[in-house]
Specification:
mainly alpha, 0% strand, 6 helices
Length: 142
Amino acid sequence: MDWTKIKTEYITTNISQRALAAKYGVSKSTLAKRSSEEQWVALREECRGKIEAKSEQKSAEKIIDAVSDTAAIKARLERTFWNLIEQAASELTLAGTVDPADLRRVVQCYVDMRNLPADVQSNEEQHNALMAALREAAKRED
């Protein structure tokens, strides 16, 4: 009887001791005795705790990566907006050809972007809206 295999299966899966005994052709009482002597239940809980901790760590890393990516996008957008604002202001000063309403929209987009919340889901939606506004303003500049 491969008790290491049986023990490992019990610790790493959700199988009951009754089902495990039937699967390996061992009596429930023999398996329960061995389980009790070697503290399989505690080992199972410890294993689950480790798996949960790893899962939480991976989730936290994904959130950190997403927030970092969002911050980088926000910084690039900020630079792009400032470049557009400077370009529009220069053209307005030199030729007076830029529509002041377009300039106000660009400035408002910048202000909106500066006030974006840190959560990833709404940032993505707002990022898309800001990018659309930026593209629209850039088309008007051409």
